[in-house]
Write a structure and sequence with these properties.
It holds the Pfam family Oxidored_FMN. This protein has 383 residues and is α/β, with parallel strands linked by helices. The chain is built from twelve helices and 15 strands. Helix 2 packs parallel to helix 3, helix 4 runs parallel beside helix 6 and helix 6 packs parallel to helix 7. It binds flavin mononucleotide (FMN).
Length: 383
């Protein structure tokens, strides 16, 4: 489509500009030289048995690696209280760190840049997934309602959480710090702090959940304190140039909404500048709880303008609006989830404007090491 316009012959340089696909232009993100702007989103795949990454992830991630492409690994637990879904990976034990190494090596062997997403799910958990059957921890003791699918099937049962005491919070910050250290030890190029989607950090950020009366609750700056302490601890540990954070101010996943998401998002974007971290990754306001785009008057532009580092956007993007976001300066990089999952060669398909494989929702979270994981066809075999 970018090849149109051969009528009255413009200057060579102009034609070249017209042919440029914005998503496929290079970008320098701190010390990392990216060859394009199409990023693999963090995607929980629930195939890491007993919380240990498995060798089948080598193929999965290397299939989605391009030379100079950025990949963000699936949400990875920072401690034994961090897990909320079965068979998700962790990075708090030596065994887990060792298991990540060949996966990271495979991505590097193909020239990819690989960040590890660090998560603590907080109250989005169940006592069966917690050490000694204890209650999950949170900013609050507000319980989360069971998650029910449209057909009435309960897909998530949550144990009412225990509110963290003020004096326990530094320990959780420390768990994130150690996990970041472990991620670097495993070979990752950096980490993404998962501050989105109603998990522990978001449970502090959002006033629908956070009802604390100490210095971690109440005003926006108090609610952001926990997130920023984690940012600071990790930046001090591994270097700010290796740190990104994901935030979803407008989302209300896991009953974690906010009464003033613009102010919250803006406050975080501005505050992050103090630490000089590499990137801020925000989920679009249009991307609501049902996982489809909706019409919204809100925009990430004020946050993009406020943040000094690299700005990543995610949520319902395709080729056309991804190109537009980059061309118009709304984002530096565009993060793709479901269509990258189903199209391991997504950058190639975008380059050729080729058709896309459809994703199969039914196999997003199944534990099979191949089906719905590494069996999506590449372009060559599709045609
Ligand atoms: C199967 C699946 C797993 C996901 N796992 C994570 C995750 O581990 N961490 C995270 O921050 N977001 C996760 N998400 C959200 C995606 O990263 C992404 O933001 C979302 O799918 C919207 O982007 P898309 O429209 O390009 O798919 C997941 C989404 C899907 C479909």
């Amino acid at each position: 489509m970018e090849n149109r316009g051969a009528g009255a012959e413009p200057q060579h340089e102009h034609v070249e500009k017209k042919n440029v696909i914005p998503l496929l232009t290079p970008y320098k993100m701190g010390p990392f030289h990216l060859s394009h702007r199409i990023v693999l989103a963090p995607l929980t795949r629930q195939r890491s048995y007993n919380n240990v990454p498995q060798s089948h992830a080598i193929l999965y991630y290397s299939q989605r690696t391009t030379k100079g492409g950025l990949l963000i690994a699936e949400a990875t637990g920072v401690s034994d209280t961090a897990q909320g879904y079965p068979q998700t990976p962790g990075i708090w034990t030596k065994e887990q760190v060792e298991a990540w190494k060949p996966i990271v090596d495979a991505v590097h062997a193909k020239g990819g840049i690989f960040f590890c997403q660090l998560v603590h799910v907080g109250r989005v958990s169940n006592q069966d997934l917690q050490p000694n059957g204890q209650a999950p921890i949170s900013s609050s003791d507000k319980p989360l309602a069971p998650q029910v699918q449209t057909k009435g099937v309960i897909v998530g049962q949550f144990t009412p959480p225990r509110r963290l005491r003020t004096d326990e919070i530094p320990q959780i910050v420390n768990d994130f710090r150690l996990a970041a250290r472990n991620a670097i030890e495993a070979g990752f190029d950096g980490v993404e702090i998962h501050g989105a989607h109603g998990f522990l950090i978001d449970q502090f950020l959002k006033d629908e959940v956070n009802d604390r009366t100490d210095q971690y609750g109440g005003s926006i700056d108090n609610r952001c304190r926990f997130a920023l302490e984690i940012v600071e601890a990790i930046a001090n540990e591994i270097g700010a140039h290796r740190v990104g954070i994901r935030i979803s101010p407008f989302a209300n996943f896991n009953e974690s909404g906010d009464s003033n998401p613009e102010a919250l998002g803006l406050y975080i974007a501005e505050s992050l500048n103090k630490y000089g971290i590499l990137y801020c990754h925000m989920v679009e306001p249009r991307f609501t709880i049902v996982g489809e785009n909706c019409v919204t008057p809100h925009s990430l532009l004020p946050m993009r303008k406020a943040f000094n580092g690299t700005f990543l956007v995610a949520g319902g993007y395709g080729r056309e609006d991804g190109n537009k976001a980059v061309a118009e300066g709304c984002a530096d990089l565009v993060v793709y989830g479901r269509i990258f999952l189903a199209n391991p060669d997504l950058p190639k398909r975008f380059e050729l404007d080729a058709p896309l494989n459809k994703y199969n929702r039914d196999t997003f979270y199944t534990p099979d090491p191949v089906v719905g994981y590494t069996d999506y066809p590449f372009l060559e075999t599709t045609s």
